[in-house]
Amino acid sequence: MSVSYCIKHKKKHDSPKWRYTTGWFCVDKVNRYEWIPDSVKDSRKVNAKDIIQPWREGQASKEFIEAYPQQADKFFSKEEKKGAKEVWR
User: Which pTM does this prediction carry?
Assistant: First the structure.
């Protein structure tokens, strides 16, 4: 740990993590969440069909079969189609 002047607490102290914007400040908690704009969320919903994959961890995707029935005939046997599950929801 290093000792520096923290603009957040207005004093010198030690901290395992420091960040710099207009001055040095300590980071008490790590922000693990990323803010995603509504436009990105909306485009993901609109384009969701385009990114569906035929398999997930060895399981046939029912969403893919419903979205692309002609391509599904090439990827899956009849038994695999019957055993397909919703793996992307």
Answer: 0.52
Q: Are strands 2-6 and 11-15 parallel, antiparallel or unpaired?
A: antiparallel
Write a three-state SS string for 30-70: CCCCCCCCHHHHHHHHHCHHHHCCCEECCEEEHHHHHHCHH
6/10 Cα distance (integer angstroms) = 5
Express each pLDDT in 47-76 by its tens digit: 888 888 999 999 999 999 999 999 999 989
Q: How far apart are CA 64 and CA 56, in angstroms?
A: 11
**Mean confidence (pLDDT) of the chain:** 83
- Per domain, the residue ranges of the chain are 1-29, 38-82
Tell me what percent of the residues of the chain surpass a pLDDT of 90: 40
Which residues make Cβ contacts (< 8 Å) with residue 77, sequence separation at least 6? none
